[in-house]
Design a protein that fits this description.
Blueprint lengths: L1 E6 L3 H15 L2 E6 L2 H10 L4 E4 L2 E2 L2 E2 H11 L5 E5 L3 H11 L3 E4 L4 H12 L7 H10 L14 H11 L4 H8 L3 H15 L4 H10 L5
Parallel strand pairs: 1-2, 1-3, 3-6, 6-7
Antiparallel strand pairs: 4-5
Helix pairs in contact: 1-5, 2-3, 4-6, 7-9, 7-10, 8-9
Length: about 210
């Protein structure tokens, strides 16, 4: 049974999402938040498999609310379900830590698919969002950033993208943990990314993961 927290300031919309997901996912335990404070309070107090949140909520910006959720529960998957088109907010929300982004006009089956994917550790990126992310991450000379990496850096990127820890990568490549951490820092710097989550999204998007 999925435990899903829905954060949106319109009760009727939350009700519609609950009915739709109950039909598409079967038995589901739901929680509801109408503003950012309720969202953060429920995230801290109860365990959830997935959070579905809007960008526009009373209390703070959607970006700040998302960052706080990820600060409190880094491993908790978050899907942004918004009325705003992907080309306006998707990249911004992914950079803030979102695991998926869907327009409210999307088909119900797409949300069900996204929930199943992020709940299993994946990320949901629509073709439109993937294209936008690719354009955003292009290097200044037109080459994808991963093509600027050394052979060893590229290998470390592939392993990070496949979900391996620094210790597992060190063992796999017969390197010290310190050396792998150094390569990771170089990769982040060269690709202008902030953390492993962004590296993983990039690797999946460009199909460079192991």
């Amino acid at each position: 049974m999925y435990r899903i927290l829905i954060a949106d300031d319109f009760p009727l919309f939350r009700r519609g999402v609950k009915e739709m997901l109950a039909e598409g996912l079967g038995p589901v335990k739901f929680g509801e938040a109408g503003n950012a404070r309720e969202l953060l309070d429920l995230v801290q107090k109860k365990p959830w498999d997935v959070v579905i949140m809007d960008i526009s909520m009373p209390g703070t910006t959607g970006t700040e609310a998302l960052k706080q959720v990820k600060h409190d529960r880094p491993a908790l998957p978050v899907i942004v379900l918004s009325m705003h088109p992907e080309d306006q907010y998707a990249v911004r929300m992914f950079k803030a830590g979102a695991d998926g982004y869907l327009n409210k006009a999307s088909a119900p089956q797409e949300l069900v698919q996204a929930i199943k994917k992020v709940a299993n550790g994946g990320q949901y990126v629509s073709p439109q969002v993937a294209e936008r992310l690719a354009l955003t991450m292009k290097a200044s000379d037109g080459r994808p950033p991963h093509e600027l990496l050394s052979d060893r850096e590229y290998e470390v990127l592939r392993l990070i993208g496949s979900g391996k820890t620094v210790s597992e990568i060190a063992e796999s490549l017969n390197l010290s943990v310190t050396t792998v951490s150094t390569y990771r820092a170089r990769i982040l710097n060269k690709m202008q990314l902030k953390n492993n989550a962004e590296l993983t999204r990039y690797a999946l998007m460009h199909q460079v993961a192991e």
